[in-house]
Design brief:
Layout (H helix, E strand, L loop, with lengths): L2 H13 L4 H7 L4 H10 L4 H10 L7 H6 L18 H34 L4
Helix pairs in contact: 2-3
Length: about 120
């Protein structure tokens, strides 16, 4: 498989497209220009870099697309989208409120104990 095809396949996957036509459109190339580059095994990496800089919201890893180098898994951020009912939101709010209250109480207890230790320490 040529380097062009490898890069094109990784970019298609990142964009969620399947055809060369869609990829050519994303790269702002006419289909015949895209086909010519494909035939010459000359992927337009400079153009891709400029487009990705103009569209950072796409969150596409240029190095991965061009070189196939995957980021370390601990560096990856995976967005999670969930839908909650109002009851679930209320339950989470109550849980967070309880956690904050417990943390505040522990901090208060620690401060009180520290102050009591100072009051009874001999000079």
């Amino acid at each position: 498989m040529s380097n062009f095809i490898n890069i094109a396949n990784r970019l298609k996957l990142a964009l969620g497209v399947t055809t060369d036509m869609e990829l050519a459109e994303f790269l702002e190339l006419k289909p015949n220009a895209f086909a010519g580059r494909k035939k010459r095994n000359s992927f337009p990496t400079e153009r891709l870099s400029m487009i990705l800089q103009k569209h950072p919201h796409l969150d596409i890893d240029f190095d991965y697309v061009v070189n196939g180098t995957k980021p370390k898994t601990n560096d990856m951020q995976i967005p999670i989208i969930i839908t909650l009912t109002q009851g679930e939101i209320n339950a989470l709010t109550n849980l967070l409120t309880q956690c904050v209250a417990k943390h505040a109480q522990k901090s208060l207890d620690t401060a009180t104990n520290d102050n009591q230790g100072l009051e009874h320490s001999p000079n």
